[in-house]
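pls ignore typos typing on phone
BES + seq
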Amino acid sequence: MLETVLAAARAGEQQSLEHLIELCAIPSVSAQPAHARDIRHASLWLSEHLRDIGLRADMRETAGNPIVYAEWRHPDPTRPTVLIYGHYDVQPPEPIEAWTSDPFTPTVRDGYLYARGASDNKGQFMAHVCAVESWMRTTGGLPCSVKFMIEGEEEIGGTHLGEFIARNAALLACDVAVISDSELLSRTQPVITQGLRGLVYLEVEARVATRDLHSGSYGGNVQNPAMALAQILAGLKDAEGRVTVPGFYDDVRVLSVAERAELARLPFSEANIVAETGASMAFGEPEFTVTERRGARPTLEINGIWGGYTGPGSKTVLPATASAKLSCRLVPNQDPATIQARVVDEIRRRCPPGVSLSFLFHGMSAGTLIDLDAPEIRALQAAAQDTYGARPLFALEGGSLPVVLDLQRALGKPIAMLGFGLPEDNIHAPNERFAIECYAHGIEASIRFLDAIGRMPSGRA
Ligand code: BES
Ligand code: MN
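k done
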């Protein structure tokens, strides 16, 4: 049976790609209010698509963006249940001029599908949708019960999914949750996620005057908010990349010798960083390796910084304000609210007289560790090995997936995470893409995983 379903998926590859192209053409950018209708369009498209392939599906309204929920219940109630998570929202495409083809005109080039969201996360969750479709079309059913929960606020750290999960624990009851929203190490090296970092995101505005000023009439006689903000921010890290905010590292667990040895086994190095980014060298806390810095150390970064005149030519202006967006990646032991407060305190402490600060907060989430000692995780390992031909490695991810902690709290079930994308997919950057081969492998891995779960003794949901 498994072989027949896999063969059907291979035969249906073109159609699977067409579905993904349709979805990627919808500019469901959650950060930008102008795309509110596109968010709804994407959720509607998805619920219809899930119904088309034979599931019960609908849109669950929240105070924010709708959540698409779908399910197929196995007639044998003792069969296990898999909950598949995904997010249909995408990051803003800017800077648009850096794209070779339009971010929302999905384009196939050199074996990749180029579009915003192709890899993060539309292509990855659609691989699961196509796997389900392949089972349904070939056998008229699935080897186990399946639920989909696909949200629209992941890229903005939204709060409504967390509320939905807490309120709907019975609806979401399952034996294992599956998430594909990370990446392989390479086309032939799968990775199962062992942990993720948390996030605190804030915006700060420095203000001096009530309006922009002539920089000749007033320059040298009042504070310059851009200069003041630059000085404040420059002090938040030392020259070697250590965060200077007092107490920032207080709750960071010191890695044991054994943990460091385990992390050192990952085939990931400065050379990967250089090759993947185009930076001339890696940079960060010198006492840690790049693997440790990515997964087991917190950081603070400027995500955006602006103020004054940035158009063509020159304008002699002394801006009234300057602003920055900042975020911290956190490791599991750190409390996001505490870190947020410490960062704000430090920014205020560094603020010179004559400059007033205001803050805006864009949500927070804590880091998580995954319990890998579950039969469902072993089933995912086997599915990955059979698909990619290599035993998956376990790795701590640098990115964040707030849903993981919400699911752990509400369901207490294993969370099986296998990324289908590649490090060179340009997620959150111009020319995001998803390799067609990765899509096919994702579909295959998902088909195998559902098969393996269906063979497990009995549902525990
Ligand atoms: N898919 C990413 C998370 C990710 C990236 C995991 C790379 C592993 C490797 C996800 O869509 C994402 O970008 N999450 C945000 C969450 C934030 C807005 C709360 C992130 O990490 O910036
Ligand atoms: Mn993302």
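Residues 116 and 286 are 34 Å apart (CA to CA). The two ends are 25 Å apart (CA to CA). more later
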